[in-house]
Amino acid sequence: MSLKSLEGRLQGGVFLLSLGLFGLFWAALSAVKADPTVLPGPIDVAHVFWSELVAGRLPRALLATLLRVAVAFSLAMAAGCLLGFLLGRYRVFDRWVDPWVTIFLNLPALVLIVLCYLWIGLNELAAIVAVTLNKTAMVLITVRQGVRSFDPALDDLAFVSRLSRGERFRHLVLPQLGPWLAVAARNGVAVIWKIVLVVEFLGRSSGVGFRIHLYFQQFQTAHVIAYSIAFVGVMMVVEHAIIQPWEARSVRWKSNADRGF
Q1: Exposed/middle/buried for 204, CB within 10 Å: 0-12, 13-18, 19+?
Q2: From the CB of residue 62, how many other CB atoms can be counted at a distance below 10 Å?
Q3: Runs of H (alpha helix) within the chain
Q4: Among 92, 151, 178, 204, which residue's CB has the most CB atoms within a 10 Å radius?
């Protein structure tokens, strides 16, 4: 067995053990509280989870929320990467746009959601616009910082080698920007799904946020926790199956370059 395979198994074992300890901690708190209407235990929540899954309500809610997350995430990453690259490259443009960035970065998500619902209406467009605007500024500043950290020597190398714009972008820009894009994506996934839940909580008739709002009104704590855990579980899968491998690949070129020199 290789060292890398052994390390991967060790990390997986620690991850599962940590989740198990969290479950025991949760069960202990539930036993101390001794009131399932306030803090139901893991077994009670598991029963609710299974019933909602079999009834089809949980899969439908997850799908609706994941679609909103995917659309808003894609739009925010595209807009944020483009604007961040331009602001990082052109200082004059950055000076003019920086106050706008600060405004959107510090505008509370709740305010932006309410304003979009008031201006656009209680529809899908308003929900997507609100989430996208809130996240774009965060992606922008990450990408801008990444562009500012580019190695000037690589620009000189591209000039001497007479690389085309496409070759520069592929071989110089993307490798240097890769780790920053991974950071932006990780933060985006962590923030966007929370904002989407608030959007659904306030003004949609489907999704995990809508279900949490519904069960909150009915004081069904176990249902609220079941839907929350379901979506957190999906996001953990995305983090460990997509974001972390992407992040590892994005910095591999630098390690290879260091060994080469």
Answers
A1: buried
A2: 19
A3: 3-33, 42-55, 57-89, 91-106, 109-120, 124-148, 152-161, 165-168, 174-203, 208-217, 221-238, 244-250, 252-260
A4: 204
Alpha carbon distance 84, 104 (integer Å): 14
Residue 20 located in a structural domain = no
Residue 251 DSSP code: T
Please state the domain count of the chain: 1
Q: What is the pLDDT of residue 71?
A: 92
pLDDT digits (tens, 9 = 90+) for 102-119: 888 888 888 888 898 889
Residue 31 identity: A
Residue 235 belongs to domain spanning = 40-260
Output the domain CATH number for residue 177: 1.10.3720.10
The tens digit of pLDDT for each residue in 192-214 reads 888 888 888 888 888 888 998 88
Q: Is residue 164 part of a domain?
A: yes
- Rounded to two decimals, the pTM is 0.79
User: Does residue 19 fall inside a structural domain?
Assistant: no
Residue 95 included in any domain: yes
CB of 181 closer than 8 Å to CB of 81: yes
Whole-angstrom distance, CA of residue 120 vs CA of residue 133: 14
Is the pLDDT at 75 greater than 90? The verdict is yes
Do residues 134 and 211 touch, judged by C-beta distance below 8 A?
no
Q: What is the pLDDT of residues 8-50, one digit of tens each?
A: 566 667 778 888 888 899 888 888 877 777 888 888 889 999 9
